[in-house]
Amino acid sequence: MSDCLILAAGEGTRLQPHTKNKPKALVPFLNKPLISYQLQILKSSNINNIAIITGYKAEKFSKLNYKVFHNKFFDSTNMVESLFMARSFLKEAKNDVIISYGDIVYEKKNLKIILETKGEISVMVDSGWLDLWSIRNDNPLDDAETLKYGKNGNIIEVGKKPKSLKEIEGQYTGLIKISNNKIDEFISFYDQLDKTILYDNRPFKQMFMTTFLQLLIDAGWMVMPAIVKHGWLEIDTIDDLLLYEKLSEERKLNIFWNKNE
Predict the structure, then answer these.
(1) Pick from 7, 3, 1: nearest CA to 56
(2) Measured between alpha carbons, how far is 46 from 48 in angstroms, rounded to an integer?
(3) What is the rounded CA–CA span in Å between residue 124 and residue 59?
(4) Rounded to the nearest 5°, which phi and psi values hold at 63?
(5) Structural domains present in the chain
(6) pLDDT (tens digit, 9 = 90+) per residue, 118-143?
(7) Phi and psi for 80 in degrees, rounded to 5?
(8) Residue 112 — pLDDT band, cuts 50, 70, 90?
(9) Residue 237: pLDDT band with limits 50, 70, 90
(10) CA angle in degrees (0–180, nearest 5) for 214-114-128
(11) How confident is the model at residue 23 (pLDDT cuts 50, 70, 90)?
(12) Quick one: what percent of the chain has pLDDT higher than 90?
């Protein structure tokens, strides 16, 4: 069993005008609110203790009837700060905790892989990322990040700017699992970070999630990849929406993500 936190505080400025009156996670995608896909997958996998971190247009989530934690500083902070707005949820968790970005969708088989992956922290990694990135970007390196494995198969680097494809053994997807017996230590690690310095040239409260994962890795945490090939999508821009809708009309979207799986 696992619990789940969905990080959905963001406005999604690159999805305007769709986010003019609703948060990014509630933007319609193939005729359903984006977040509804993963809520359906979670419930069908018997994950029922679910909370949502809200921010922009937070009141729009009330109709979903899930526990919420609000990041009122959503417009000046990043996902790591949003995550720790729900520290009481983390502390009270009786199971491993899934942390999911609110702007992704994934298949049930992908969730099953991360649930079964053993590690202090597990991260869903797409080994087939280049197929998707090649149709999303003229140059896949423009929006990709490094990810490298160590000799034990663990992740030793994530989230840096790659100079070549050789530095990318897979792509981080925005789905993370924290082992229940490491949650207290996970919170303490965050609390003990120096809040006065920059992290990858960003203030503490604007730290990227990949930066935080790299700090854990550098401190000796065993971060393991839950390796998948496709079976998920990130919806970050208008171009993403248009591309996926076009692929769906052409019956080609299933190559990357099957909404019925």
Answers:
(1) 7
(2) 6
(3) 30
(4) -70, -15
(5) 2-255 (3.90.550.10)
(6) 999 999 999 999 999 999 988 999 89
(7) -65, -45
(8) very high
(9) very high
(10) 80
(11) very high
(12) 96
Residue 240 phi, psi dihedral angles, 5° rounding: -60, -50
| 72 in Cβ contact with 80 (< 8 Å) | no
Asked if 24 and 241 touch (Cβ cutoff 8 Å), the reply is no
Average the pLDDT over 146-152 and give the result.
Answer: 97
Listed residue (32, 177, 169, 42) closest to 107, CA to CA: 42
DSSP characters for 170-195?
SEEEEEEEE-GGGHHHHHHHHHTS-T
Q: Taking a C-beta distance cutoff of 8 angstroms, is the pair 213, 200 a contact?
A: no
Amino acid at site 241: L
How many residues in the chain? 261
The tokens 């030793």 sit on which residue? 156
pLDDT computed for residue 261 by the predictor: 83
**Confidence (pLDDT) at 240:** 95
Q: Please say if the pLDDT value at position 1 is more than 90.
A: no
What's the predicted TM-score (pTM) here? Answer: 0.96
Residue by residue, DSSP assigns the chain as -EEEEEEE----GGGTTTTSSS-GGGSEETTEEHHHHHHHHHHHTT---EEEEEBTBGGGGGGG--EEEE-TTTTT--HHHHHGGGHHHHHH-SSEEEEEETTEEE-HHHHHHHHH--SSEEEEEETTHHHHHHHH-SSGGGS---EEE-TTS-EEEESPPPSSGGGBSSEEEEEEEE-GGGHHHHHHHHHTS-TTS-BTTB-GGG--HHHHHHHHHHTT--EEEEEESS-EEE--SHHHHHHHHHHHHTT-GGGT--TT-
What pLDDT shows up at residue 214?
A: 98
